[in-house]
Design goal:
The chain is α+β, with helices and mostly antiparallel strands. It has a single domain (2-97), classed as EF-hand (Recoverin, domain 1, Orthogonal Bundle), CATH 1.10.238.10. It has helices at residues 2-23, 46-49, 59-64, 69-75, 85-88; strands at residues 39-42, 57-58, 82-83, 94-97. It is globular. It starts with a helix and ends in a 5-residue tail after the last strand.
Length: 102
């Protein structure tokens, strides 16, 4: 049961990350915290992007996860064409709206 719960959480995070990249939005600072707008914020999961498990995210891995090239290039501080964990932590957290406007 725990694995299905973890998979569901990762799926929700992935969908939220993709939506944030497509639609933009504000990015709060803290992950996993409820705020006054009844939204939860999460940090993007590095392991989800690092599909080949080499501890780096390549431009191809990022593109496969729908990360825009401008975001990838902005995060690639050392300009080596890949993101390490430290660079990836600069990715803004995303907001999950629990009660979207109707």
């Amino acid at each position: 049961m725990r694995n299905s719960s973890t998979l569901r959480n990762i799926t929700v995070q992935l969908l939220a990350i993709s939506a944030a990249h497509v639609f933009g939005g504000s990015y709060p600072v803290l992950a996993g915290v409820h705020d006054e707008s009844n939204s939860e914020v999460i940090a993007p999961p590095f392991e989800l992007y690092d599909t080949n498990k080499d501890d780096y995210i390549s431009i191809e891995e990022a593109a496969a996860m729908k990360m825009p090239a401008r975001i990838f290039n902005g995060l690639d501080i050392d300009r080596d064409g890949r993101l390490n964990k430290e660079e990836f932590t600069k990715m803004p957290p995303i907001r999950l709206n629990e009660n979207p406007p109707q």
